[in-house]
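[09:14] KT: can someone run the structure on this one? pasting the chain below
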Amino acid sequence: MIWGIASVFGLMILCGSIGVVAWNLDKSAAHFPGARLVADHSKYSLPKLYRWDHTYATTATIDEVYQWYSITFEMGPETEANGTCSLLEELDSNFFYERYTGVLICEMEVERMMFVTRGTKFFP
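[09:31] RB: done, C-alpha coordinates below
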Protein backbone atom coordinates (compact mmCIF):
# COMPACT_ATOMS: atom_id res chain seq x y z
CA MET A 1 0.00 0.00 0.00
CA ILE A 2 2.85 2.39 0.81
CA TRP A 3 4.44 1.62 -2.56
CA GLY A 4 1.17 2.40 -4.30
CA ILE A 5 0.80 5.77 -2.56
CA ALA A 6 4.46 6.59 -3.21
CA SER A 7 4.04 5.66 -6.89
CA VAL A 8 0.98 7.89 -7.30
CA PHE A 9 2.74 10.75 -5.50
CA GLY A 10 5.87 10.29 -7.68
CA LEU A 11 3.74 10.24 -10.83
CA MET A 12 2.00 13.47 -9.77
CA ILE A 13 5.38 15.16 -9.21
CA LEU A 14 6.65 13.93 -12.58
CA CYS A 15 3.54 15.17 -14.45
CA GLY A 16 3.71 18.52 -12.65
CA SER A 17 7.39 18.93 -13.52
CA ILE A 18 6.77 18.11 -17.17
CA GLY A 19 3.93 20.64 -17.19
CA VAL A 20 6.10 23.41 -15.72
CA VAL A 21 8.90 22.75 -18.23
CA ALA A 22 6.43 22.73 -21.15
CA TRP A 23 4.82 25.97 -19.89
CA ASN A 24 8.21 27.73 -19.67
CA LEU A 25 9.30 26.48 -23.12
CA ASP A 26 6.04 27.74 -24.63
CA LYS A 27 6.41 31.11 -22.90
CA SER A 28 9.99 31.59 -24.11
CA ALA A 29 9.23 30.49 -27.69
CA ALA A 30 8.68 34.12 -28.78
CA HIS A 31 12.20 35.22 -27.79
CA PHE A 32 14.04 36.09 -31.00
CA PRO A 33 17.60 34.64 -30.83
CA GLY A 34 20.06 37.24 -29.55
CA ALA A 35 17.35 39.79 -28.79
CA ARG A 36 17.26 41.79 -25.58
CA LEU A 37 14.10 41.52 -23.45
CA VAL A 38 12.80 45.05 -22.89
CA ALA A 39 9.55 44.31 -21.06
CA ASP A 40 7.14 41.50 -20.35
CA HIS A 41 3.72 41.22 -18.85
CA SER A 42 1.55 38.21 -18.13
CA LYS A 43 -2.15 37.98 -17.40
CA TYR A 44 -3.62 34.76 -16.10
CA SER A 45 -7.27 33.88 -15.66
CA LEU A 46 -6.60 30.19 -15.21
CA PRO A 47 -7.85 27.69 -16.06
CA LYS A 48 -9.67 29.42 -18.95
CA LEU A 49 -7.29 32.08 -20.31
CA TYR A 50 -3.70 33.28 -20.22
CA ARG A 51 -1.90 36.02 -22.13
CA TRP A 52 1.77 36.87 -22.54
CA ASP A 53 3.02 40.24 -23.80
CA HIS A 54 6.74 40.61 -24.51
CA THR A 55 8.84 43.39 -26.00
CA TYR A 56 12.24 42.65 -27.50
CA ALA A 57 14.95 44.73 -29.17
CA THR A 58 17.58 43.49 -31.62
CA THR A 59 20.12 44.82 -34.09
CA ALA A 60 19.31 42.04 -36.59
CA THR A 61 17.93 43.14 -39.94
CA ILE A 62 14.19 43.57 -40.31
CA ASP A 63 14.14 40.78 -42.90
CA GLU A 64 15.72 38.32 -40.44
CA VAL A 65 13.26 39.26 -37.72
CA TYR A 66 10.27 39.13 -40.08
CA GLN A 67 11.27 35.71 -41.46
CA TRP A 68 12.00 34.22 -38.04
CA TYR A 69 8.61 35.16 -36.56
CA SER A 70 6.77 34.26 -39.76
CA ILE A 71 8.32 30.78 -39.87
CA THR A 72 8.34 30.11 -36.11
CA PHE A 73 4.64 30.84 -35.64
CA GLU A 74 3.52 29.95 -39.22
CA MET A 75 2.13 33.46 -39.71
CA GLY A 76 2.58 34.02 -43.41
CA PRO A 77 2.58 37.55 -44.85
CA GLU A 78 1.95 40.69 -42.84
CA THR A 79 -1.65 41.66 -42.19
CA GLU A 80 -1.01 45.40 -41.86
CA ALA A 81 1.78 47.92 -42.26
CA ASN A 82 1.94 51.47 -40.96
CA GLY A 83 5.03 53.60 -41.55
CA THR A 84 8.01 51.58 -40.41
CA CYS A 85 5.96 48.94 -38.55
CA SER A 86 4.61 45.62 -39.81
CA LEU A 87 1.99 43.49 -38.07
CA LEU A 88 1.92 39.71 -38.33
CA GLU A 89 -1.10 37.88 -36.90
CA GLU A 90 -2.22 34.29 -36.59
CA LEU A 91 -5.28 32.68 -35.00
CA ASP A 92 -5.08 28.96 -34.41
CA SER A 93 -8.12 27.20 -33.02
CA ASN A 94 -9.58 23.78 -32.47
CA PHE A 95 -11.99 22.19 -30.00
CA PHE A 96 -9.57 22.44 -27.04
CA TYR A 97 -8.05 25.90 -27.42
CA GLU A 98 -7.88 29.12 -29.40
CA ARG A 99 -4.50 30.84 -29.63
CA TYR A 100 -3.91 34.33 -30.98
CA THR A 101 -0.37 35.41 -31.85
CA GLY A 102 0.42 38.95 -32.92
CA VAL A 103 3.88 40.36 -33.67
CA LEU A 104 4.41 44.04 -34.36
CA ILE A 105 7.89 44.68 -35.79
CA CYS A 106 9.01 48.30 -35.85
CA GLU A 107 12.13 49.71 -37.48
CA MET A 108 13.90 52.15 -35.16
CA GLU A 109 17.05 54.14 -35.91
CA VAL A 110 19.58 51.55 -34.77
CA GLU A 111 17.53 48.51 -33.79
CA ARG A 112 14.27 46.69 -34.40
CA MET A 113 11.58 46.46 -31.73
CA MET A 114 9.31 43.42 -31.58
CA PHE A 115 6.06 43.57 -29.62
CA VAL A 116 4.74 40.02 -29.22
CA THR A 117 1.29 39.20 -27.86
CA ARG A 118 0.19 35.62 -27.36
CA GLY A 119 -3.14 34.73 -25.82
CA THR A 120 -4.63 31.29 -25.28
CA LYS A 121 -8.21 30.50 -24.38
CA PHE A 122 -9.14 26.93 -23.44
CA PHE A 123 -12.43 25.40 -24.58
CA PRO A 124 -13.59 28.49 -26.51
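[09:33] KT: thanks! Strands lie at 36-45, 49-58, 80-82, 85-93, 97-107, 112-122.
[09:34] RB: yep, looked fine to me
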